[in-house]
Amino acid sequence: MDFKKARGFQDFFEEDCLKFDNTLSELFKILKRFDFSRVEPPLLEDTNLFKRTLGSESDIVSKEMYSLQKGKENFTLRPEGTASIARMLVTQNNYRQLPLRWFYYGPMFRHERPQKGRFRQFHQLGIESLGDSQTETDVEILSMAWLIVKKFNLKSHVFLEINSLGKKEERDQYKKQFQKYLFPFKNKLSKDSQIRLNKNPLRIWDSKEEEDQDILKKAPLLIENLDSSSLQRYSEIKNLLKDLKIPFKEKPQLVRGLDYYNDLVFEWTSSQLGSQSALIAGGRYDTLVEQLGGIQTPAVGWALGLERLNLLCPAVKKPTLQIALISSGEGTQKAYKLAYQLRSEGYSVYYRFSGNFSKQMKRASSKCLWFLIYGQKEQKQESIILKNLKTKKQVSLALSDLSQELNKRLNSLDTC
């Protein structure tokens, strides 16, 4: 049988895993500075959770979810993380601990058309600040994203775009106005936008189709329909961003595609990612927890796409091991036991069972600086040769003195 990798899914090899690990390590360090704690929702959730929170007419629910049925139960592989975080708060009854700062990391699943930076299984790191309604909280999580952008040297091509959706009633009123504007152009809209017109009209703003863009040029904007309190909140956020010297631009067409957002929405986009330009995206969602039967809980958060971040970052150099153990074929058993002893003491040891001395040394020379040469002569004399490939210096040691000499010569367990 001719087995092929499923479309939109990835195989991760050593270099990919090293890059993910390095990226996550740096991200976790930044999250700790802001006192965020890690949580991990399950991969499978009740399908109704996403229908309820994302909107039954959203693209995710209507076209992209991977769902399955087991008996009378319906489950969905999580397409995003925020709904699960809100569900965790409600089901675990964590209200007394509010405010909470949680972050999560893991795979998400959406049946989309694969392209650069977009996969059907992808990885997100998300942060959610639960229980704080202040504008300072909104700006704080934006400042965290800004530190990430700076940490990975992305300032030259990653930019913050912001908008305000106001309150739900303002958005609902705007939807009617927007639909009224678009209906005369219905037959001129793209096929997808014609479908969205009745079901989820705000998503038409996301269209890249030329015919849609021409029609949208004179469309009314949501920001023009916000009341004074929503505009005041938005103004405070902009002033706080300026105070922190975090560059941004306003994008009144930015609406995000999920029903639970209100007030601030934002995207950090990169000019180097093509059409899938969003690197970090999120916003405020003050009614989501209440929608799930919980108490009214103000919240704001964002999610970062790991695959997209890694596309923008250089390759990671493979870590070197500490020691290479080179032995002759006849002494495999003794060398095997010595390798185990050294690893038990905390050393990273490169050791292979096959190949002559020259082949073993050639393979190991790209991985290690220190060589332990353990040939037949050394095995008979219960000695070993310690060689530094950089200086070419070597010394013969009694096998019983090896651990002491390694501790002396290797400054730390991470030194090669």
CATH architecture level-2 label of the largest domain? 2-Layer Sandwich
Task: Catalogue the unreliable spans.
Answer: 412-416
Amount of beta strand: 15-25%
The tally of structural domains comes to 2
End-to-end C-alpha gap: 45 Å
Number-wise, the strands total 16
CATH homologous superfamily designation of the largest domain: Bira Bifunctional Protein, Domain 2
Q: Determine the CATH topology of the largest domain.
A: BirA Bifunctional Protein, domain 2
CATH class of the largest domain: Alpha Beta
Radius of gyration: 28 Å
Can you give a write-up of this model?
Helices cover 37% and strands 21% of the residues. The two termini are 45 Å apart. With 416 residues, the protein is an alpha+beta fold. The longest helix has 20 residues. It has 2 domains: 239 residues, 2-Layer Sandwich (BirA Bifunctional Protein, domain 2); 87 residues, 3-Layer(aba) Sandwich (Rossmann fold), CATH 3.40.50. The protein has 15 helices and 16 strands. The strands form 3 sheets. An 8-stranded mixed beta sheet has the order 1-5-6-11-10-9-7-8. It has a 5-stranded mixed beta sheet with strand order 13-12-14-15-16, sandwiched between helices. The chain has a 3-stranded antiparallel beta sheet with strand order 2-4-3.
